[in-house]
Design brief:
The complex is a heterodimer of chains A (532) and B (183).
Chain A lengths: L6 H9 L3 E7 L2 E6 L4 H10 L6 E9 L1 H4 L1 E9 L6 E9 L4 E3 L9 H11 L2 E3 L49 E6 L11 E7 L3 E7 L7 H5 L8 H5 L6 H16 L5 H28 L4 H22 L8 E2 L2 E2 L5 H26 L2 H7 L7 H7 L3 H6 L6 H4 L20 H25 L18 E7 L4 E8 L5 E7 L1 H12 L8 H8 L4 H4 L1
Parallel strand pairs in A: 2-5, 6-7
Antiparallel strand pairs in A: 1-2, 3-4, 4-5, 8-9, 9-10, 11-12, 13-14, 14-15
Helix pairs in contact in A: 7-8, 8-9, 8-15, 8-17, 9-10, 10-15
Chain B lengths: L1 H10 L16 E2 L1 H8 L5 E7 L5 H9 L11 E3 L8 E5 L2 E2 L3 H10 L5 E5 L1 H5 L9 E3 L9 E3 L6 H13 L3 H10 L3
Parallel strand pairs in B: 2-3, 2-4, 4-6, 6-8
Antiparallel strand pairs in B: 1-8, 5-7
The chains are: A alpha+beta (532), B alpha/beta (183).
Bound molecules: iron/sulfur cluster.
Iron/sulfur cluster (SF4) binds next to helix 3 and helix 5 of chain B.
Chain lengths: 532, 183
């Protein structure tokens, strides 16, 4: 009988000489490999039938002032077990080229373009090296995440600004429809360039990063404890998801064991955030089919949840709820009963509405088979969250990598395999009911105890941690590395929008432009979280 | 059909069911703005421009249109194009890339127009102050008439500011002034 090897041993057997070091960091295996061997190794992890690793994050760290090198990190989530595996490699400081893995692992596409813009490291063999974050008016040779780039030197416009380099399709009867950056509704800015022939969309080119505020660089000016407020303001609708992911990363580094009561409360607030966003989105999607009745009811219910948030925590967006080590706000028994009663009303109200929506033929007609994202496409893009689950990617961190109190709760993960707008609405609706159920369950289980605990250790410079939270949109990932004087050396933030945006380009093909707002809303992605 | 009607009757009217804005006026109005706002006393059309916010300010602007706040009842509309707008509501610090579009929007909005900076970011860049990607608060690029602070300001506070701004003088007073010769 063949011995069962774990993924790291398997890689060691196959790629022995290419692996320079194997280590474990807070339970996550890290395989350090030679730079020229990254492609075969990552490709093996991705394509092997048993490993089936999805690229979850790819980022660079600049170590030049100290060690004269860059470091590239590849985080994989393995297929069945959902375990993490990191591949990392060094790049000498004077080197600017590294081998692109995009031709083999499509999910690396935007990450590698981002690394080029932010660090000036060029992915050789990348099929599409247009600028991503840096718009064309950004000056040449400016790479803000270099450690020696001053965080507060405001960028000047390059004169004359470069032209837009989109992907153009030429031919008789082919038209281009540019939309944005400023849109007709109250939406965030982004530029969409549709190519159409007749009605159907042939191609969509996204141009984002209008809202790039330099968040990752701003983190580097913060101490570990001070970064929470910034994390809350990365994407306002995911205030709690981001602050939780950030706090968890710091807690790992400081070896804080968050008290049980605080972990339960974090779950409550995370579900509340999921609730108000999902309810709002269901209404928004209906609104994009011009079904104003459902929109009005949903926005009324959403407002009820937000007013509830306000009453319980003093913030409609749950700002200031999380702090490193626990939570800053407690819920008394009375408050908790108020919460549960109110949610019961909201659920009944919503269920009645659901019955009205479910039988509306013109609505179903617009939803069904619109904006289909196939499972394979979703997998290739590494799509996460609601969008992934609606396309048959069965992943939910609350179940797969429990955080907060989810290890003691049983989360029923919703899913569908159709991948169209209707599937995404259905997943949202199931998650709304599930969130309310979870909060009810927490009411039964909520233990007494302290709300926060203190730092145990002071880690050395160079220590790092990864943390993940299933926000309402999907997986939020934080990589946090400490530098000198307990400052942050590098904080890589990944909002689920960053991986889901490229997938929308695939989902719209063959649909008509009037359906685009509907598809876009059914994805419901953040621009701020994507642009950083 | 009956279900829909039943639902509507059961729900009743929810407009106005929100806690009042916290006491103490926080917004500030430039001296020249009050005069400009007189024109829009009965109807004000707003165009919202996001120049780099965290999107919480947007969500509160969106909330203004929901049945609970329903700003249409106050004669405030949200326009789809700056060409139809009387007032621009700007949220977020102005990022390097949004500086151009913001100036374009300002130019396309017909005169007279009001500019309302909504949220701490729009007023002083908030937590993003000083970053390489942020060129400054809104008033560095276009003249700002009204400032509504908060992170984000609650919808009730926004309504309060907009109502206060448009209180102005009554038509009768204006006639009276005209005929009595007192400006
Ligand atoms: S003021 Fe606050 S809520 Fe508004 S955009 Fe800035 S950080 Fe977000």
């Amino acid at each position: 009988m063949k011995p069962v090897l774990n993924p790291v041993e398997r890689l060691q057997c196959l790629f022995g000489p290419a692996i320079t070091r194997v280590s474990t960091n807070y339970g996550i295996p890290v395989v350090h490999v030679l730079t020229n061997q990254v492609l075969p190794i990552t490709r093996y992890i991705h394509a092997n039938e048993e490993l089936r690793g999805t690229l979850s994050l790819l980022w660079a760290v600049d170590h030049r002032p100290r060690d004269g090198r860059y470091e590239l990190w590849y985080l994989f989530t393995l297929g069945e077990s959902k375990d993490w595996l990191i591949v990392s490699t060094d790049l000498p400081g004077e080197e600017r080229l590294f081998e692109s893995i995009t031709p083999k692992i499509h999910a690396a596409n935007w990450y590698e373009r981002e690394i080029r813009d932010m660090f000036g490291l060029i992915a050789q063999g990348h099929p599409d090296l247009r600028r991503l974050v840096r718009h064309n008016h950004w000056p040449k040779g400016v790479h803000p995440l270099h450690t020696n780039f001053p965080w507060n030197s405001v960028l000047q416009w390059r004169q004359p600004p470069g032209s837009v380099d989109g992907h153009f399709i030429h031919g008789e009867g082919v038209f281009e429809v540019p939309v944005g950056p400023i849109h007709a509704g109250i939406i965030e800015p982004g530029h969409f360039r549709f190519t159409v022939a007749g009605e159907p969309i042939m191609h969509l080119d996204l141009q984002h990063f209008w809202k790039h505020r330099g968040v990752e660089k701003l983190f580097e000016q913060q101490t570990l404890a001070g970064g929470v407020a910034l994390a809350e303001r990365i994407s306002g609708d995911t205030t709690l998801g981001h602050s939780l992911a950030y706090c968890q990363a710091v807690e790992t580094l400081w070896e804080i064991h968050v008290p049980r009561r605080a972990r339960y409360l974090r779950s409550v607030f995370l579900e509340l955030e999921r609730l108000h966003n999902h309810i709002g989105d269901v209404g928004g999607i209906c609104n994009d089919t011009a079904y104003a009745l459902a929109h009005a009811h949903c926005s009324r219910l959403k407002e009820r949840v937000m007013q509830l948030n306000d009453r319980l925590t003093g913030s409609r967006f749950l700002r200031g709820v999380n702090c490193v080590g626990g939570v800053g706000i407690d819920l008394s028994t009375d408050q908790f009963s108020e919460l549960v009663t109110e949610l019961e009303h909201i659920e009944n109200d919503f269920t009645e509405l659901e019955q009205i929506i479910a039988v509306n033929a013109s609505l179903i007609d617009r939803f069904e088979s619109t904006g289909i994202l196939k499972k394979q496409t979703a997998w290739d893009h590494g799509v996460v969250g609601v969008v992934g689950r609606a396309s048959g990617i069965d992943r939910d961190l609350r179940r797969d990598r429990p955080f907060a109190a989810y290890d003691e709760l049983s989360v029923r993960v919703a899913g569908s395999s159709h991948g169209d707008v209707r599937a995404r609405v259905q997943v949202r609706v199931s998650e709304i009911h599930e969130s309310i159920r979870l909060i009810r369950e927490i009411q039964r289980l909520l233990p007494d105890g302290p709300l926060r605990s203190d730092r145990q250790v002071v880690p050395d410079a160079g220590a790092w941690a990864l943390s993940a939270v299933e926000g309402w949109r999907g997986e939020i990932l934080y990589f946090l590395m400490i530098g000198e004087h307990a400052h942050i050396h590098r904080c890589k933030v990944r909002d689920p929008s960053f991986v889901n945006w490229p997938a929308i380009q695939m989902a719209v093909i063959g649909n008509i432009i009037p359906d685009f707002p509907l598809i876009n809303k059914s994805f419901s992605l953040s621009y701020a979280g994507n642009d950083l | 059909m009956f279900k829909i009607l039943k639902k509507s009757f059961k729900t009743g009217i929810v407009t106005g069911q929100y806690p009042p804005a916290p006491a103490g006026q926080k917004f500030s109005v430039a001296p020249t703005a009050q005069k400009k706002a007189e024109l829009f006393r009965k109807s004000l059309t707003i165009r919202e421009v996001d120049t780099g916010s965290c999107n919480a300010c947007e969500m509160e602007m969106n909330a203004l249109a929901n049945p609970v706040y329903d700003i249409e009842r106050l004669g405030i509309h949200i326009a789809a194009s700056p060409r139809h707008a009387d007032a621009l509501v700007v949220t977020g610090p102005v990022t390097v890339s949004m500086e151009g579009p913001l100036k374009d929007v300002f130019k396309t909005t017909p005169n007279p127009k009001l500019v309302i900076a909504l949220g701490d970011c729009a007023i002083n860049c908030g937590i993003f102050k000083g970053s390489y990607g942020v060129t400054g608060p809104v008033d560095q690029h276009i003249p700002v008439d009204v400032r509504i602070p908060g992170c984000p300001p609650r919808p009730s506070e926004i309504i309060e500011a907009l109502t206060e701004l448009r209180k102005g003088v009554t038509t009768f007073t204006r006639w009276f002034r005209k005929f009595s010769g007192n400006p």
